[in-house]
Write a structure and sequence with these properties.
Layout (H helix, E strand, L loop, with lengths): L2 H14 L3 E3 L11 E3 L1 H20 L4 E4 L8 H6 L1 H4 L1 E6 L6 E3 H27 L5 H7 L1 H22 L3 H10 L16 E4 L3 E4 L7 E4 L5 H6 L1 H7 L6 E10 L14 E11 L4 H18 L7 E5 L9 E9 L2 E12 L1 H10 L5 E3 L4 E3 L2 E8 H12 E5 L5 E5 L10 E5 L6 H12 L5 E3 L5 H10 L4 E5 L1 H6 L1 E6 L5 E5 L3 H9 L2 H6 L1
Parallel strand pairs: 3-9, 19-20, 19-21
Antiparallel strand pairs: 1-2, 4-5, 4-6, 7-8, 9-10, 10-16, 11-12, 12-13, 13-16, 14-15, 17-18, 21-22, 22-23
Helix pairs in contact: 2-13, 5-7, 5-8, 7-8
The protein binds adenosine-5'-triphosphate.
The site of adenosine-5'-triphosphate has 16 residues, from strand 10, strand 13, strand 16 and helix 13.
Length: about 500
């Protein structure tokens, strides 16, 4: 299956199984906006819980807040978003479609790198066990030609982006003969800047209302509350403020499902440090965040760091943690050393002192900030696309199973009476009522047991508990594990401990 097919499969699976729906579907859908269904919301909540607890509960020096979406519009002047939160856009005059100029070039690069991968695949097949991929990549003429071309195009694009050279981007698109995927033509407009913030008006009457923005990142709510948190709690530098919340960006290109949305959720943490110590903290947070991802168990090789060459206006160091999505390695989380840019500018625009008085050293300063910023929806996509598996079974049939880490599965256990006669359902309902106090539990009584197992596999339920005639006599049940499909007999009184042992979010927290 090629990458596009995997993504398509995840999209249709997510819809058919109650994880994610297109927003406003009955009105033909709102582009780049999605709704989470019953299982999707549970899974998303579990991911939030893992992040929130790992930040606030597991670190003495990190506290959480929940700030509003609307903020004084001056916030965005101070943060630089009004002047610099732009993407370079280009229109195709024939299809009338709008694209991000840098994304068109990145897609071109992706096509060339797919050619490299094809060459490698062919050679691996040809040489079998003797194949040395490293040597092949370093010496094969065709691969070298493609790789040099990729480097050349990337470096030209990066330098245009860095210097805001819009004409340079247009020239690059022309020189590479990039065509619109829809019209197939290269009839492009010039490249223009496009601000990504949504705006609306606050206030009822036309003279008193003012233009405000829907926040494009949650971070500014943290900066605006920096002083409140310092003055109302016992935090001392170095300390962090964490927040989970919605952010809004009028993205030019709407595609790749929940990877790039116009309304999405961020989980951000701003860590305030003494000026001069930011690089040390930046390295620490890089390591900590990578460990957090690895603890989820999707595989170490699915992640890599990508250091930024083009730094945003506020940063003195930045990198992404990239994940191997169905579309290839792409940004999942950003780690940025934001200097004192934000607090300094809020101090300037608000006229309020945002200094921190360090009692230990007796000095007063504007702290530097190291930020970790992860998109919850991208995290969801990483988990969902890794978990969806089709497995061949012994008897020649197949099962579709969502191999989510047990700790984040939406439903932890399903209770199933063998049939609804002879008191089996009464017994099963009693077990169900008990378990649901601790776990998200389903009572599943329709169809054959085999069909019920498949149904639970398809939403990633780690355990199925079957109540049979022996259960009436010996107070024990059969518990079946989703991944091994092994069944074991356990006393009903041990169920809670057994399920807790394998599904508690603490298992993940212990690993970080
Ligand atoms: P990209 O380069 O992909 O546009 P970004 O560098 O603008 O992302 P940041 O501003 O660093 O992203 O935001 C932090 C995180 O928020 C990203 O790592 C990503 O996980 C998430 N994110 C950003 N934009 C979107 C979006 N439009 N839809 C979903 N998640 C997003």
């Amino acid at each position: 299956m090629d990458n596009n097919d995997i993504l398509k499969k995840v999209i249709s699976y997510s819809k058919a199984n109650g994880f994610i729906y297109q927003s406003s579907e009955i009105y033909d859908g709102l582009s780049a906006v999605y709704d989470y269904g019953p299982y999707g919301s549970e899974l998303k909540n579990n991911l939030k819980e893992f992040w929130w607890k790992s930040m606030t509960q597991m670190n003495d020096n990190i506290v959480g807040i929940d700030s509003s979406v609307f903020m004084d519009p001056m916030t965005w002047k101070a943060s630089g978003h009004i002047d610099a939160f732009n993407d370079p856009l280009i229109d195709n005059k024939d299809s009338k479609k709008r694209y991000r100029a840098d994304v068109l070039i990145e897609d071109y690069i992706f096509k060339i790198s797919s050619k490299v991968e094809k060459e490698v695949k062919k050679a691996r097949k040809r040489f079998g066990d003797k194949f040395d991929e490293k040597v092949f990549r370093e010496t094969n003429e065709r691969v070298l030609k493609y790789s040099n071309h990729i480097d050349e195009v990337s470096s030209k694009m990066n330098s245009c982006l860095k210097s805001n050279d819009l004409q340079g981007l247009k020239n690059l698109i022309d020189s590479l003969n990039i065509n619109d995927p829809i019209s197939g033509t290269s009839n492009w407009t010039d490249v223009k800047q496009f601000n990504l913030m949504f705006s609306t008006e606050i206030g009822a009457s036309s003279d008193s209302s003012k233009k405000i923005y829907l926040r494009p990142e949650t971070a500014q709510g943290i900066f605006l509350n920096f002083l409140n948190v310092v003055n109302s709690t016992r935090v001392k530098i170095p300390f962090g403020i964490a927040q989970i919340g919605k952010a809004f960006r009028n993205e030019i290109i709407a595609r790749q499902f929940i990877f790039r949305m116009r309304e999405f959720e961020q989980m951000e943490m701003q860590f305030f440090v003494e000026p001069g110590s930011e690089m040390e903290w930046y390295e620490k947070w890089k390591e900590k965040r990578m460990n957090w991802h690895i603890a989820l168990g999707l595989g170490k090789d699915s992640y890599k760091f990508h250091d930024h060459e083009n730094l945003a206006h506020y940063a003195n160091a930045a990198c992404d943690i990239e994940f191997n999505f169905p579309m290839g390695f792409k940004e999942l989380e950003g780690i940025h050393s934001r200097t004192d840019f934000d607090l300094k500018n809020h101090q300037k625009y608000s006229g309020k002192k945002l200094n921190y008085f360090d009692q230990k050293s007796g000095s007063s300063y504007i702290p530097y900030v190291v930020e970790t910023s992860i998109g919850l929806d991208r995290l969801f996509l990483s988990v969902m696309s890794s978990a969806l598996k089709t497995e061949k079974l012994d008897e020649g049939s197949e099962r579709i199973v969502l191999k989510l880490p047990f700790e984040i599965s939406p439903i932890k256990v399903a209770v199933m009476p063998l049939n609804d006669k002879d008191g089996l359902s009464e017994k099963a309902i009693k077990i169900y009522d008990d378990l649901k106090l601790n776990f998200n539990t389903q009572y599943d009584y329709k169809d054959s047991i085999g069909k019920r197992y498949r149904r639970q596999d398809s939403i990633g339920t780690p355990f199925c508990v079957t109540v049979d005639y022996d259960s009436l006599k010996d107070d024990s049940v059969t518990i079946r594990n989703r991944d091994s499909m092994k069944q074991e007999r356990i006393p009903i009184k041990n169920l809670e401990n057994h399920i807790t042992k394998f599904t508690s979010i603490n298992n993940l927290l212990r690993k970080i």
